[in-house]
Amino acid sequence: MAETTGQGAAAPAPTPTGDTAAAVALTKSAGAVSPRALKARGDGLALRLIAPVMRLVEIPMLGLQRLLGINLLAWVFLLPNLVLFGLFAFLPVVLNVVYAGTGGDNVLLADRPYVGARNFALLTECGSYLDPNTCREDKFWRAVWNTAWFVTLQVGIMVGFSLLTAIVLNRDIRARGFFRSVFFFPVLLSPVVVALIWKWILQREGVLNAFLDWTGIGGYNWLVDAEWAFAWSVFLSVWAHMGFYTLILLAGLQAIPRDVYEAATMDRASPWRVFRKITLPLLAPTMLVVLVLALIKGVQTFDEVYAFTGGGPGTATTFIIQYIYEEGFAGAPRLFGLAAAASLMVAGVLVVLTLVQLWVNRRNVDG
Amino acid sequence: MTHLKLLGTTALALGLAAPAMAQEIRFMCYSDGNECEVYDDVLTRFEAANPGVDVIVDVVPYQAILENLPVQLAAGTGPDIAKVTDLGGLNEYYLDLAPYVDTGYWDASFGGTLDWYRVGDRQGYYGMHSQLTITGAFVNATLFEQAGVALPGPEATWEDWAAASRAVAEATDTPFPMAIDRSGHRVAGPAVSYGAALNGPDGPTLSDEGFTAFVQQFVDWHNDGTIARDVWAGQGGATYQDAAQEFINGELVFYYSGSWQVSRMNDQVGDFFDWQVVGSPCGPAGACSGMPGGAGIVGFEQTEHPEIVAAVIDFLAQEDVYAEVAARTRNLPAHLGVASAGVAFEDVTPAAQAALSAFAADLPDVAPAAFWYQGYPGNRAMFGITVERVSQAIVGELSVEDAVARMADDLATAMAESQ
Fold it and tell me: Which fold has domain A118-366?
């Protein structure tokens, strides 16, 4: 703080040696040795101590620079990161593609027979894609349709509610800070915790049924009914993730300049018109980000629903990631090839989704 | 000194087990009750008799034995010894103990259970069956008494029990008449009693007339409320789910599970109500079969000290040690000598002692098909297929006919893939 006030005091009287003057003014206002001067002295000492150590590092680097030239040296600095990314991001992707082309239940690649595109053929062998019962891998297509419905409902409801909440929280309401944190709170919980909380509420002898019994309506076994289990899964997922998107939309709302609204007020535009003609268009870029993120996250849904219903009843809440997990890891025999093929198909869908969004985005920006 | 270590599955998956020392033997163990503690204690004596040998018992969750152990073994980073339940499925990794142990004693003591660990041309001595289990039914005798319904006799059929349980549940306002664990292993015994061959003329099958008849009956009982829907319809995939808590809470009249639940009932029911074991009811096909099963202790070929591994397992297989472990862990013995001498189980109520005796008495009723099924290396795949497809039939996603057809397809795929 002393520094800023010192500079502030010096600013009205610029001199040719501005820096010195500022330093003098600073010293005067601080009334003692300036902190900056002290810091400089400390730096000098530290530098003298560190310099010999740094020389040790510098010598081999200089040698490398002479050897490789200045352009190639960049790779030396990138190498550690490249190795990590290569090992834990790119190599698994390559391995996934290779596994998708092999069959059997052996873990080691060397023991797995090459089967070409058979895994993909198995997954896509269908009488009609709309009716999983006509498909060879009916569980895959059930999971695909469950996921499609889930993503549509979840993203639609979640983005709608997030927008509504963000708009409400952007107004001057009482205890605004409190409500903002309340809506964000579920995001901080582990998905498994979220699932267990709602399971306790919704199970046969759960809190909700106890309440319904008390009111005289009578309880219902929610999680054993396919439609209700699915509906509650959507609800739970919206509840758990809404806060995050609300936060992004809130930031987007606050980035809209005030003067546009003031101009609208002067023109006596109705609130609905203001919302439609100002808020929505100016929020569109943020909205797009929210949509992309929510869609990708929706397709990846696994942990909370798996802990909540286990994918049941039957396959009512089994989503595509759970199918991959079950084929590849949970069941016997472990069909790594089929699971890898299914995961590549999901990856394909996600890439297409992202490309569509990017294309829409670019068109918006250009238009 | 023996160490009892609780290792998380993640630590195991990452192979974080301590680096092997000269004579260090790692024993990957899971407990249904107190098995690992007892092994750890008993093995202290082995260590005292064999200076320099350190047997480390790593206690892991059952899930780690099912999911992590096979991957570790395939990668060559498995333990030296493990307690396993996928008896035939892991055969390729087993250490043949024949060169190190008295095979005559093993044949005389373990008889038929040795075959459960053998596959194809690998016919050695691999596993010591440490706990024999058999599926069977627990009934809440107090509820029967309150309802004034007589307990059906030993020759009673599944239909007799279903009718009696429904009558009891109605009279006593109990939520569930019957429940069966959500497991392909559990329904296999009843299915055999309904005429399922399991090992048909054309190889393993889940779609013959007998199996279909059982699935139809099972689904019908779910639809008319005889069997608790929560157990099979409350889960997805092939996830295991039991109904022990419902039984312990007194909400269930007839609970079909197995002998490994006796400890739990003994500890948790207390004198809340009277319970007893009635074995496996009979089916229309005449058989009254349960499913045998259990866990065994095996050594792995990857070990650096095969002779010590064999010595440890042989030590646990000795009649006095085996009898002590069976008594302290309250498990049915698979050791024929121990079984014929009888086991005085420790710390059990008269009800639990009677229950264990009832399960033991039910062992001769096990049908050959059920015995074969337990030893078949592909049985885990068949269990999983049964659970998934029967659940779909129960919730109405598939008709019984379609579900059975799907089971046949799934089984064909699984067998082709695991060649």
Answer: MetI-like fold (1.10.3720)
